[in-house]
């Protein structure tokens, strides 16, 4: 069986159409839910990225694997290369595309996993997109700028629009003027036997200063499974 694990970032359960949201349109995920299994009581072990993703990687709670804060926010510690993890499944070759954010400074190749070696948030558009305020690019490696140049694409530009009026809490709308080519891995693959597709979120979204009000909902995440 081949397994595709699609991990979203900062998505609460009630933010998807499949879970009843009346405004946000998520037709592809909704279709997966309709044809597969939708879990209504899926919980993340942590409300921030690094600890949650490390728990998914190791099968351990943050209190056991020791990563309790994001590395860029002062977190310390790494998962031992000898420790059990989902990259060591017998009979499987493992690949990762996009955000990693396991541990604090580690990258996939440290565990024999092929793919993008983006450490931390690893947002390849940081320092590349015009007008982009978010500035946390991968420090390990990032060929995105060179890739755009090689392909002859212009540097993408993002909107100057923001959510909210508080300058200390506002979030930039990244998609408003996006005009370039996204960093995607396009490959053709022959999938044999069965394909198990899993879609879930690392954690919900904490916005502004209302952490106490949204923390409980922040821990309830979407989880959809479809066997093809």
Class of secondary structure makeup: alpha/beta
Largest beta-sheet details:
4 strands, mixed
Globular, elongated, flat, extended or rod-shaped: what is the shape? globular
Largest beta sheet: strand ordering? 1-7-8-2
Strand content: 5-15%
* Strand elements, count: 8
- Radius of gyration, CA atoms, in whole angstroms: 18 Å
Mean pLDDT: 78
Percent of residues in helices comes to 10-25%
Determine the number of helices (DSSP H or I, runs of at least 4 residues).
5
Distance between the termini: 10 Å
User: What is the H/E order?
Assistant: EHEHHEEHEEEHE
Low-confidence stretches: 176-194, 206-215
Short structural summary:
By secondary structure, the chain is α/β, with parallel strands linked by helices.
Structure, explained:
The strands form three sheets. This protein has a four-stranded mixed sheet, with helices on one face. The longest helix is centred in the N-terminal third of the chain and has 10 residues, at 49-58. With 228 residues, it is an alpha/beta fold. It starts with a strand and ends with a strand. The radius of gyration is 18 Å and the shape is globular. It has helices at 27-35, 49-58, 62-65, 144-151, 211-218; strands spanning 2-8, 37-39, 95-96, 114-115, 162-163, 171-172, 195-201, 223-227. It is built from five helices and eight strands.
């Amino acid at each position: 069986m081949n397994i595709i694990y699609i991990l979203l970032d900062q998505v609460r359960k009630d933010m998807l159409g499949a879970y009843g949201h009346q405004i946000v349109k998520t037709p592809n995920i909704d279709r997966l839910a309709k044809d597969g299994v939708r879990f209504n009581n899926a919980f993340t072990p942590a409300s921030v990225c690094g600890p949650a993703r490390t728990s998914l990687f190791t099968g351990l709670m943050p209190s056991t694997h020791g990563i309790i804060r994001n590395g860029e926010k002062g977190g310390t510690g790494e998962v031992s290369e000898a420790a059990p993890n989902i990259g060591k499944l017998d009979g499987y070759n493992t690949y990762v595309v996009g955000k990693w954010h396991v541990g604090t400074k580690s990258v996939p190749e440290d565990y024999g996993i092929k793919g993008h070696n983006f450490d931390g948030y690893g947002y390849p558009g940081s320092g590349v997109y015009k007008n982009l305020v978010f500035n946390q690019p991968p420090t390990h490696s990032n060929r995105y700028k060179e890739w755009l140049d090689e392909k002859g694409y212009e540097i993408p530009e993002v909107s100057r629009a923001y959510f909210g009026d508080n300058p200390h809490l506002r979030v930039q709308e990244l998609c408003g003027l996006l005009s370039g080519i996204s960093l995607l891995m396009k490959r053709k693959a022959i999938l044999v036997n069965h394909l198990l597709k899993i879609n879930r979120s690392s954690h919900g979204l904490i916005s502004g200063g209302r952490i106490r009000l949204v923390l409980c909902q922040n821990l309830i995440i979407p989880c959809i499974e479809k066997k093809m």
